[in-house]
Amino acid sequence: MVSALLWGLIIVLVGYIILAYNSLVRIRNRVENAWAQIDVQLKRRYDLIPNLVETVKGYMKHERGTLEDLTRARTSLMNPSLTKKAQASNQISEALKTIFAVAENYPKLQASKNFLQLQEELSGTESKIAYARQFYNDSVLILNQKVQTFPSKVIASMFGFKEKEYFEIEEAAKKPVKVQF
Amino acid sequence: MDIYNEISTNKRNSVLLISSFFVVIILLGYIFGYIFFNPYTGVFFAFLISMIFTLISYYSGDKMILAMTGAKEAKKPEHTFLINTVEGLAIAAGISTPKIYVVNEDSPNAFATGRNEKHASVTVTTGLLRLMNREELEGVLAHELSHIKNYDVRFMLLVATLVGITVLISDMLLRSFFWSSHRNDNKANTFIIVIGLVLAILTPIVVQLIKFAISRKREFLADASGALLTRYPPGLASALRKIKNDKEPSIAGVNRAISHLFIADPMRFAGDKVKHWFSTHPPLDERIRRLEAM
Question: Which of A66, A100, B4, B261 qualifies as a FRET site for B202, CA 20 to 30 Å off?
Fold first, then answer.
């Protein structure tokens, strides 16, 4: 009787470990996939920026500084550190915002089909980066919760699952959160 | 209810729907066979027919629906914003990007269809693209992508095609009963004929009612999960308000069988009295109110 109970307990325990382990693997893969999505979009923007600089530099004589900032931020985007990447990404977003705002004052630029298409592509990429970041941070939140809370915490430390860093945006760049659940 | 719960419910409902489809068609086949030749031949053919129709509707039902509405694939640079937005929302939802189609129609509307997240498509009307600003279009597309992510599309697709075919077969059967009653006066057959008649009349009504009942809850859920994707419920709320105020006639090529796929019921101008009872969509006012309360 006692041994049957013991066996029952062991089976339940092993079953729990397998389930918890699998769910940790699943969420870690999701975080990695989410990170790959951010990377794809950052790369896409990285490739688009030289075209933009090439297109606008003939028109925008007075905004040399902004264009240089943009080029510099673009280079530091290749930094492997997550924090540096996030910073560079924010700088690029800011620079692009300035360029597109200034571009309103150049009717010739506004008439250029090439520029308008680039602008549309770049703002598309901007919003994709935002969405990819949202998906990444949501996934990291779930992973970190599992790694931090009992009992999945035990399984996580047994198999070496670690917390992941969020892809942060600077306080100033944050929009007010409007959704309440 | 959370999304993962909803996904498994949808998958289970799809299996349930296919099973009931088989049962109903085989029963009809039995009765049909009993009256005209022999019940087992009837069952055999009914099984064959259900098999073929289930396979067709599962694997190419979405293509049939797209062909019905005359949708064309969206291309850059004409639809750059539409394509970019769908791609972005797909990233946010963690699914692969669906195919994107545009229907040349003035009435603002949209629908999603497909069998799973890898084989899915989103379709919008040109009227929607013209009428909505960016946040509103984003809200509508997020609603459609939620349908894909939640596996609503699979269930809705099966409902559209299997319900359509059941109604068609019952109708055929009903006609043949009337036709045969002139020459077949055997009293022993009367009982089975009555059952057959009742079944043939009731089946389409019951199936329709089930279809209406389920899709109302689904729309509320897709609104909520869509808002979770964009993190901006006012976008969809204002889009729905614009759709509500729109007075364009309904969309060509859309009938009752597929009207439940759309974000706003394209048949809502049909104007029948039992409209509310038969409505596939919750009232737009109620959906707007819920979105604004988020």
Answer: B261
